[in-house]
Specification:
CATH topology of the largest domain: FAD/NAD(P)-binding domain
Helix content: 25-40%
Largest sheet: 6 strands, mixed
Distance between the termini: 31 Å
CATH architecture of the largest domain: 3-Layer(bba) Sandwich
Strand content: 25-35%
CATH class of the largest domain: Alpha Beta
Bound molecules: flavin-adenine dinucleotide
Number of domains: 2
Shape: globular
Length: 365
Amino acid sequence: MHVIVVGAGIAGLSSGWALAKRGHRVTLLEQDAIPNPLGASGDDHRIIRRAYGEMAGYTRRMTEAFAAWDELWRDLGAEHVAKVGFMGIVRAPGDNADAYRDGLARDGYPFETLGRDAALARFPYLDPQGFRDLFVSPEGGVLLCLRIAADLSAWLGAHGVTVRDHCTVRDIDVTAPAVVLDDGTRLSADAVVVTAGAWVTHLLPAFADRLASKRTYVVYLDPPADFRAAWQRTPAIPGIGGDIGGYILPPVAGTDLKFGAGATRTDWPAGTPFELAADAGERLRDLFAPLFLRLADYRVKRVRKCVYTFTADDRFFGARTGATWVVSACSGHGYKFGTAIGRRVADAVESGDERSLIRWLEARD
Ligand SMILES: Cc1cc2nc3c(=O)[nH]c(=O)nc-3n(C[C@H](O)[C@H](O)[C@H](O)COP(=O)(O)OP(=O)(O)OC[C@H]3O[C@@H](n4cnc5c(N)ncnc54)[C@H](O)[C@@H]3O)c2cc1C
C-alpha cells in the first residue's frame, strides 16, 4: 500500500514509522521543519505519566504507550526519555493532582505521599503556604521531543520513507484519495493520513465543529542558584490545580526548567500570526505564586509559542472518509501516546476498521 501522511508532528512521524515497519510505501509531507517549532510536538520536552484521574481509559492505555515507546527506543538504538517519574502537588482537596492520586490508588499503581515536612526537605523551593501535601510516582518522566523528532525522521529516511519538509499540502481530495501541494502537484495514494495538528481545520473545514485550534506559550526559566540542584532532582509535575491548569518540566538531560499553564490558552484561527507581550514570560511565571518561594528571582530565559487542537471533552480525535484518515493526538495530553497512536493508525489503515481506532483514541473503556 502507498500511504501519504500529512504533518510530521509525533502523530505523523509515528504513523510513518509503524506503516514503514509493516512494509508499506510511505510519503511524509511537512509544511515546515521537522519538528515545526510552532507545532505541538516542536517543544523541548513533554511529560509522560500514567495518572489520569477520572479519564481512567487513558490510565489503562498507558501500558500500551510505554510498550510503544520501548519499541521505538529499540529501533532508534537510543532512549530519549528521562525516567525521573512525576509528582502531584496537591493544593486543595479534589484538585487535579488529588484526582490523579485517587486514580493511581484505585487501579493499584505505585506512588508515595510525602507530608509537608518531608516535601519541604526534598523540594526546598516550595512555599509552605502554597500546598497541602504531594505524592511522587516512579513511573514516567520527560520525553525529549527534539531528539525524538531528529532520530525518528532519520530512521524513516533510512527505511525507505520519502520525507519532505517545507512541503505544504494545499488541498486534500478525500474521495481519490490524493493531496495537492502548494506548487499544484497532485499526489495520489491508496490511503492518506492527516495528522496536521492545529492546522487540520484549515485543510478540512468540515471538522471545525469537533476540533478547535488553540494557541498557548511556555516559559523557560533559570531558577535561583540555591534551588538549582533541587529542581534537577524534581520529577515532572502535571496537573497543578487552582485556576491555572499548570505543569512543570524539570531541567533534565540538558534541557531547561519549563513552566506552562492552561490559563494562557486562547483560540487560534489556523495560520494567523500571534505576538506575545514583552513581559509574557514573567506573567506566566508569576501565575505559579504562591506555590514557590522567591518566584521573582527565576530569570526568564525564553518563551516558546505553541498551537494545538482540542475536542469538547479533551479526548483524542479520529475519523475516516473513504481512504482518508484524520487523527489528532489532541487536547494537550497526546504526546505520550504518539507512538502508540502511530501503531493504531497503521492497524486501521490496513484493516479499514475505523471504529476500533476511534474507540482506542477516545478511551472511554
Ligand atoms: C504547551 C503544550 C504542552 C503539552 N504538554 C504535554 C505533555 O506534557 N504531555 C503530553 O503527552 N502531551 C502534551 N501536549 C500535547 C502534545 O504536545 C500533542 O498532543 C502532540 O504533540 C500532538 O502531535 P500531533 O502530531 O498531532 O500535532 P503537531 O505536533 O502539531 O503536528 C502537526 C504537524 O502538521 C504539520 N502540518 C499542518 N498542516 C500541514 C499542511 N497543510 N501540509 C504539511 N504539513 C502540515 C505542522 O507543521 C505540524 O508539524 C502539550 C501540548 C502543548 C501545546
